[in-house]
Every structure is written in C-alpha cells, then in structure tokens.
Amino acid sequence: MAALNELTLAEARDGLRRGDFTSVELTQACLAAVEAARGLNAFTTVTSGRALTMARESDARRRAGTIGKIEGLPIAVKDLFAVQGVPTTACSHILDGFKPTYESTVTANLWREGGVMIGKTNMDEFAMGSSNETSHYGPVVNPWRRPGDNRPLVPGGSSGGSASAVAARLVPGATGTDTGGSIRQPAAFTGIVGLKPTYGRCSRWGIVAFASSLDQAGPMARTVRDAAILLGAMAGFDGKDSTSVEAPVPDYEQALTGDVRGLTIGIPAEYRVEGMPAEIAALWEQGIAWLEQHGAQVTEIRLPHTKYALPAYYIVAPAEASSNLARYDGVRFGLRVAGENLDQLYENTRAQGFGREVRRRILIGTYVLSAGYYDAYYLKAQQVRTLIAEDFRKAFATVDAILTPTTPTAAFAQQERLSDPIAMYLNDVLTVPANMAGIPGLSVPAGVSKEGLPLGLQVLGKPFDEATVLRVGHTIEQAARASLAPTPWWRS
Amino acid sequence: MSGIVHGVTGDWEIVIGLEVHAQVIASAKLFSGAATAFGAAPNSQVSLVDAALPGMLPVINRRCVEQAIRTGLGLKAQINRHSVFDRKNYFYADSPAGYQISQYKQPIVGRGTIQIDLPDGSVREVGITRLHLEQDAGKSLHDQHPDSSYVDLNRAGIALMEIVSEPDLRSPEEAGAYLRKLRAILRYLGTCDGDMEKGSMRADVNVSVRRPGDPYGTRCEIKNVNSIRFVQQAIEVEAARQVAVIEDGGKVEQETRLFDARKGETRPMRNKEEAHDYRYFPDPDLLPLTFSQEWVEEIKRSLPELPDEKKARFARDYGLAPYDAGVLVDERATADFFEAVAEGRDAKQAANWVMGDLFGALNKAGTDIGHSPVSAEHLGQLLDLMADGTISGRIAKDVFVAMFETGKAPAAIVEEKGLRQVTDSGAIAAVVDQVIAQNPDKVAEYRSGKDKLFGFFVGQAMKASGGKANPQAVNQLLREKLKG
Amino acid sequence: MSLDKATVARIAKLARIAVPESELESLAGELSGILTWIEQLNEVNTSGVEPMTSAVAMTLRMREDRVTDGGDPEKVLANAPERTDTFFVVPKVVE
Ligand SMILES: [Mg+2]
Ligand SMILES: [Zn+2]
User: Fold this and answer.
1) Are the C-beta atoms of A285 and A277 separated by less than 8 Å?
2) What is the interface pTM, i.e. ipTM, of the complex?
3) Active-site residue among A182, A203, A244, A322?
4) pLDDT tens, A3-36?
5) In chain B, which residue's Cα lies nearest the Cα of C68?
6) CA B8 – CA A491 distance, rounded (Å)
7) What is the 3-state secondary structure (H, E, C) of B48-78?
8) Cα distance from A341 to chain C (closest Cα, Å)?
9) A441-448 and A454-461: which strand pairing?
10) Which residue of chain A has the CA closest to B33?
11) Is the domain B425-482 a CATH 1.10.10.410 member?
12) A322 among known catalytic residues
C-alpha cells in the first residue's frame, strides 16, 4: 500500500471510513512528509501540535458516529486565510507577527466539516505574483524538474506553496485563492487540479484581500474528485460577506458521472494567443478529441475581448489593491517602522514592509485612480470588463462549458522572468478572463511538455455551474491518465 | 449680523452653503454590528470591521438605509432607488482602513428643499443638493501625552448622513434658521438627535463673497463647526476676512479653514500642503444599493406631520400668527405639549402660556420641555380654572409658579392656599363699600368726571380681596356704587 | 504613458510609501512600461458601455439593526504595535 500521505483525498476518506487507519496516523504521515520536504519551502508555518489534536478529536468524533464531509483529512491552508492564533502574514514583512483573533469563514467551514489543519502554505506576497518568488519567506520550489536538469523550477503563483505541497504528496488537499489565475496556473505548473469557483461561491470573509472584485477561494488537490469534495466543504453562503451568494451548495462529487454526452463545449479562437507553443496547441487539440470521443459536441466560439482582459486586469486589480492595502499602516497590527511624525511612520512602515512587486502595484493602482486619470484607466477597464462578461454570456447561450489551455507555457526556472514584469503578467493571460467575468474555471492536468513538465487544460463554466465544469474536467482527467507524479528527488 | 458686508469700496453679499453631517439614529454601525452609544470606554464599541483588520468585510445596516430614505422624504427630495458606495481614500489616524466608505457620484438622496423661517415672519426656500450615507471616523486625543496621540475607534463606522445645501443662504441669520429647521426636521423624523454638543450634528460651512448680482466668488470651507452660534460667528468673521483680502487687492484662495471660537477668527488647516486626491472608486466589497418603490411608499406612510405642515395647521386651525406657530413647532415636544393644552380650550391663550410663562420658567431653570415639572394636562387644568372663574388671571400666574416648583395640580394648589376666587356678591360688595369709604376724595374726583380713576378703584378692591375677588363682579358693583 | 519623476513622487506620497530620490528614475521607467502596455485598451470602443459594478448579478443584502459585535477591546488591540490602556498610540498628530 502507498504511504498514507500519498493517498488522494477520496482514498484517504474511504480508508478512514473503512477503519484501515486513523486520522492521527494519516496526519502523522503528512507531517513527516512535510518535515522531509523542507527544501520545497512550501510551508510558512507547520501546526503539528494543532494538527495532532484535531486528528485525535476527529477520530473520537468518528467513533461517536458524527462525521463531516472531510472528516479527519489533513488540509494545508494558504497563508492568506486568517486562522485564529496562527501567524497569518500573506507572506509579507508588513504582517510580521500578526496572529488573528478570528477565523476565516472558509477555514471555519473546513474545520466544521472535520478537516485537520496541517499548516500555512507559502505564497506570493499579498497574492501578487505568478511564480511564488515575491514571498517574504523565499521562493517555493516546484517538485517537478526537467529531466537531467537540477535547476529549481517555480511552482507558479500565487498559491505556489499549496500547489507544491499537494503535488509532492505532502497533503491530499489545500486551499488557494485565485484573483487572476493564482489557483489554476500553479495547479497547471505542478500537475494537480485547481478550481476557481464562481465569484460569490466561497466567502471572502477573513481572507486577506488583494482585489476584492476578483478574489475567490478554491480547492487545490490531486484529482477532480478531490477538488469536488474539498469545494463542497469550503463553499457556502456567508452573511458576513456582502458578495456571498445565497445559493445551495450541490453535491459536487455526484456530478462526476463520467458522462459528457449531450454537452456542448466551446473552443474560443481568441485563446490561440500569439506565440503559443505548438505543444500547448497540441494538448488543446488532444483535449478536444477526448471530449468528442466521449460524446460531447465541440464548437468554435468567439470571445472577442479576450485580448484585453489582461491589461484591464492590470488596472482593476492594482486599483483595488492600492485601497485594500492602505490598512497596513503600522498602527493597529503588524510591522511598525518609526518616523518623526505619523506620515513618516506610514511611509517608512509601508516602504520597508511591502516588497518590490507589491509596491509597484500599489503605485500603479494609486496612479490609475488619481484625479484626472480615473476615466481613462479605471472606468475604461470596468467597461472592458462588462464587454468580457458579455462575451461569455453570449457564448454560454450556446455552449455548456469552454475548453482552453490553462497557461501559455509549462513551469519555468526561478529568476527566469523576475526582471520583466510584463512577461510575468503574461502567465495569466488565459486565466484572467474568468476572474474578470466572475465565472468558474478549473485547471486539470492533461499531459506533459516535451521537457517532461506537467501541462493543464482549463474548463470554464457558467456562473454557479461548478458541477458541469467538474464533470467535464473529470472526463479529461480520466482520458489523460497521464503519469503525473514527479520523481521524489527532494526526500531527505 | 446681516447678509451685507459694508466694505471700504462698497457693499458685498455673503453667499453660504452648508454641509451637515448628521449622525443616524440606529443601534448598530453602518457596516458593522458594533454599538453606537455615546460615551463608552475607548475601543469598547469596535468591531474588527471598524478597526479594518485584514479580511474584514462590510455588510450594510438596513435601518441606516431606511433612516436616509426617511430623511430624504422629509426634505421632499428625490429618492434614488439605485445608489453606489464609493471609497474615499486618505490616510489618517482616525481612518483605520485608509479609506472612508461614502457615496460620491450616486447618492441615495438627490435634490430636495427646506423652508426656513425668518424672524420677520417671512419664509424662504433653500435647495438641498443631495444627501448621502457615509461612515464616521474615529477620534484622536491629542492632549493625553506630550508626543503621542491616542486613538479611539468607537465612533469609527457610525452612520452619518451628509446633507449638502445649495449656496442659497445669504446671511448668518439664514444659516442659523436653516440649521434650526434642518435639526427640527431630523428630530421630528427620529433620524438624528441633532445634538451638536455631542457631535451628532456638525457643519462644514462654505462661505464666499461677491458684489450683489455678480457670479459667485471663490469659497472657503470652514470645517466641523459644532454649534449654531459658532456657525454664525464663523460666517461673519470669514466674510469680513474675505472682503478685506479682496479690498486689499488680494485674492481669496480656495481652501479649508478652521474656526477658532476663542480668538474669533478662521485660519487655514495646517495639513494643506498636499492637495487631497481622494481617488474615489466604487467599493468592490459592496454591491450597488437598490430597493423597491414599495419600501419607499411604506416609509412615506409612516412619516409624522413635519414642522412646516404643522405650522400651517396651527396658523389655520388655531388662528396663531405664523411666527408664533413657527416657534411652537420648532420642537416636536413643544408642539405636542401645546396641542395637548389647546385641545378644547382657547388656543391663543394656550399659546401665550406655553411661549410666555412656561418657556420663561424652563429657561430660567435651565431645562427643556421634555423635563417640564408642569405637565400639559396641569397647564390645561389651570386654563380651565380661569375659564370657569375659579381663579383670576392674576392668581393664575401665582398658581403657575407654585405648579412649576412643586409639580402639583393647579386645583390642589388653589385649595391649599385658599386662592379660590370670591364670587359671592355680598362679600364683594363689602369690599367695594370699604374702598369707597376709604377714598372719599377720589370718589369725588371720579364723580366730577375723572373716569380714568375707575381703574384705581378696581385695583384697590382687588388688592383688598387679596386678588381673589372676581374682577367682573368688582367692576359691576363699583360702577353701580360709584354712581352714588 | 510616460511618467516623470515628479509624478512618481506625488503618487508615492499619496500611497504613503517612502521612495528615495535615487529610485524615482528607474521606478518611473518601470511604471511607464506597464502603463504603455495597458494602453492597448484604447483600441476598444467602450462608448455607451456600462462599467461593471459587480461580478455577481445580485443586489446588496441588508442586515438587521442589532448590536452583534464589539464589546471586547482586547480582541481589537491584540496585535497593536503600541497601546496605552485600550487606546492605539501614534506619534502626535497636529491639527
Ligand atoms: Mg464634506
Ligand atoms: Zn462627509
């Protein structure tokens, strides 16, 4: 039998049900794997004591016969979610020492459903980045390497720690957040499944805000089934979030029928972005073929404003961030760097507390909102956003889901794109439109590059129709069956 | 005080617009569940939302929205069933999130109007530009420590209505009348207690001057003035300052100023070196605020009679002079008190007693009608005792003083002190005879045609009866007996 | 769009981020590059298009006027870098 930490979420759940092992044993296996994989730098905090306590309590609940949806299953939490009493830093120096006195709604839901908290995962600072190189706690390493090449690759970002932890089989599941692709792009880079739900599906309460109108929490796991299980435990209406939607959460696992007959899948020509490598295009063709073989109808669609999603995003997201991050001022929590007066205290704290990329985006955001520029930038971007949403609305009048690649390339080496912000931003060119429109998007591993690195396909769906997205993703996953486990070179 | 500044070079007209911040009456804050009570221990009425901890989100309080709609209806204003909350971005110790949630381009209430009552009895319409909902800021204490300020966020996040007037006011008096009327309307509606001392109503005053008939001049905004008297003083000194600047060949700079009541001057705020750039944009944590016309209608049906309508009714139904009616409706409690006294009685007499004796006594005692020791019921009974001849008007004044001191019913005081009016004609005749007997000279003068002396005899008779004799009976008997 | 040093200094001041004079030039270059790239949006005709106000099609939910929070200053001040009693403390602010 595989080591317990290598089980998928569903396998572990079933093993616990059968009594093959206890949550304590499972948790210990994960903690040991985490310990052995320090080199990946996937975690910022490992909460071993809390994990074992929660596991023991879970085993007791199981004996008493009261079990939740993810009872006894170890989960890692992106460091953007407030967990009561545990350092929550958004991987920023400015949140040094911050321990929330409150629990985010999503993590509270997880613990209520029996989840076991393993620790906090590393990420790009304030979720701003696509390579996990902007973290105050150092870069995360992708468990995958190019064959015969030991140079560390990036896991993608911003949920890079969660992606690496799941891909390296340290934990069966983790939470991520996705503002422009921060779940899907690292999922694709590390060969796992990542789902950005519909905006409003998961509560944002207690999650450090990056760009409020785009941020959405979602699951990261090894299989589509696992993502479905985890989403079911995370999602739900929350009265504390004005943008949370009062809609029932379906049983997503039941949606995985393996049957896509009768579904129409749209293929947007505009996603064939300039310079897309042939292997990505080929993977996409392969995905189309799989769906057709399983009885889905495939049709070309037009999403004419796709090209403008990324530049519009780089107005909307920094603008919202510049305002959301104003609260980090050294007065009520976190880092304080002294100054001669209050303004200098603010300026010193924020200059030293924020990293380069965060400062850059705050400045861009401040500029595009400033007097005289609002209409030309922010208003324009929000108008473009309406057009993007309209494109999707029209498309979904005729199709049930949309298939695209997740990323224009496979994982790249550390440092490779750090010096060129726009090259870095282009990582998200295929994922950003879903955030701009608020629709759900799933990345599912579908193959490997010629260098042997994982590649993902993206399934986009109608608002609140995560079930169809998961069903289509599941079919691709079953068809791909690619051998997508990296060689465990990192084990010490 | 007047609306004209007499400069060296001629007359100048003052142009005034007011922005009033009125604290909404509600139990909880605009976007959090923390309490709004006044005077709590520092930071004891603060939610993590108010303190802007990471990940905290706003959820709007229905009551605050209802209060804004209610106020809008009271100002006969346009209610916008679609409005938007924006972030006003600025750094300040009192502003925990680094932005204030406010409404900028699309406020909940649009154009309306307020009628102001001027001392000469005339009425003027003042335009309301808009009313919007926004969060209050926290409070810093600067006098507790030599080089630190202490921050208390209890007030942070309390709902305010910012009510902006058109530049329609032309004198300090008009500004005062506007604020009094606005306060009266808010109190009638129960949407703001109007207590300027506690800061639940604060005014920003925009002042400019111009030659009569010219376009508007450059205005200055005087921030956060916290009493009607200070608003009037601030306008006066600011207008004089601006005229002096212009007449000296200078230019009025558009700026924000503070009013120093002790020195009786306005001065520029210190942190003006950086022009504000608030970078307003729609708050992405909130959706546009929309509500149904049915809700608006329901609120409309629950509105009380407002001061202007009440004033018109008082003038019409009770025959009161417009100014008197205006005074009586100023406070809802006064109007209610008056109506309870006037009910089934002589309304003008009731009005005189309320505005004269009662207001005088309350003023002297430093209290208000809500705490009056004389109830409306008792004052009404006093009027009844006069009407049925139990006491005279003069005795009634004494009875009122005793009522105010003791809180007792007038009948009890009359009994206790034996103040019942003497109507027995035998007893009165005796008094009259006595007065005639004691003043033979005056009687002779009267009888020789000096009619004016009649009043003297009435006075003497009343005095001799200890004021208790029925004046009509005294009159009648005196006339008979003086004929000789 | 090309930003000059003065503009960068102004927005840095607005954002309350200290930027040393020596870094203004390179920062101006970086930001200008990003803004220039963003300006491809000008190709899109947006006349008459409503700006998006929310990614979800719903109206603002309202809560009841009940006191459900506050009453625990320690919870609010738990992470304060500097405090006195139950006040946050900042360098003296002069009006
Ligand atoms: Mg104002
Ligand atoms: Zn205001």
Assistant:
1) no
2) 0.96
3) A182
4) 999 999 999 999 999 999 999 999 999 999 999 9
5) B33
6) 91
7) CCCCCCCCCCCCEEHHHHHHHHHHHHHCCCC
8) 6
9) antiparallel
10) A240
11) yes
12) no
Q: C2-46 pLDDT, tens per residue?
A: 899 999 999 999 999 999 999 999 999 999 999 999 999 999 999
- Taking the CA atoms of residue B313, residue B314, residue B317 and residue B320 in that order, the dihedral angle to the nearest 10 degrees is -140
**pLDDT(A266) > 60:** yes
The residue assigned the tokens 């997205």 is A469
* Maximal CA-CA distance, chain C: 57
In chain C, what residues touch A360 (CB-CB under 8 Å)?
A: 27, 30-31, 34
In order of A7, A121, A140, A153, B84, the CA distances from A38 in angstroms are: 20, 12, 10, 16, 48
- Rounded Cα–Cα distance for residues B395 and B169 (Å): 47
Determine the residue type at B140: S
**Low-confidence spans in chain B with pLDDT less than 50:** 273
Say yes or no for a CB contact (<8 Å) between B279 and A208: no
Q: What are phi and psi of B180, to 5 degrees?
A: -65, -40
By the 8 A CB rule, do B396 and B380 touch?
A: no
Q: How far apart are CA B422 and CA B431, in angstroms?
A: 11
Instruction: Specify whether the CB–CB gap between A244 and B57 falls below 8 A.
Output: no
* Cβ C70 vs Cβ B45: under 8 Å: yes
CB-facing half-sphere around the CA of A122: CA atoms within 13 A: 28
CA–CA dist B285, B420 (Å, integer): 73
Reading the block at residue B446, the tokens are 């009267």
Q: Which helix (H) or strand (E) holds B176?
A: helix B172-189
The model's pTM: 0.92
d(CA A442, CA A457): 8
- Cα A433 from Cα A431, distance rounded (Å): 6
Q: Where are the alpha helices (DSSP H) in A7-75?
A: 9-18, 23-36, 48-64
pLDDT digits (tens, 9 = 90+) for B230-247: 999 999 999 999 999 999
> Count of residues for chain B?
484
Write the DSSP string, B286-301.
SPPEE--HHHHHHHHH
Residue B430 corresponds to which amino acid?
A
The C-alpha atoms of residue A207 and residue A268 are separated, in whole angstroms, by: 33
- Name the helix (H) or strand (E) containing B312: helix B307-318
Q: Which of A215, A242, A385 to mutate to test the interface with B (most CBs of B within 10 A)?
A: A242
B35 CB within 8 Å of a chain C CB:
yes
Chain A contact for B287 (CB, 8 A cutoff): yes
- B64 contacts C65 by C-beta, under 8 angstroms: yes
H/E segment holding residue B206: strand B201-210
- What 3-state DSSP class applies to B451? helix
Q: How far apart are CA A355 and CA A60, in angstroms?
A: 44
Could you list the beta-strand ranges (E) of B236-286: 256-260, 265-268, 281-282
Cis preceding linkage at A158, omega within 30: yes
For residues B45 and B47, give the distance between their C-alpha atoms in angstroms, rounded to a whole number.
7
Residue A381 in tokens = 């971007």
Contact between chains at A422 and C33 (C-beta distance less than 8 A): yes
Domain map (residue ranges) of chain B: 4-299, 304-417, 425-482
Tell me which residue of B1, B6, B4 sits closest to B244, measured CA to CA. Answer: B6
Q: CA–CA separation, B155 vs B397, rounded Å?
A: 47
Report the distance separating Cα A153 and Cα A140, nearest Å.
9
The reply to whether residue B279 touches residue A327, judged by beta carbons under 8 angstroms, is no
Residue B297, both tokens: 């209608």
**Cβ(A317)–Cβ(A432) under 8 Å?**
no
User: What residues contact B483, with CB distance under 8 A and at least 6 apart?
Assistant: none
Count Cβ atoms within 10 A of the Cβ of residue A159 and give its class: 0-12 exposed, 13-18 middle, 19 or more buried. buried
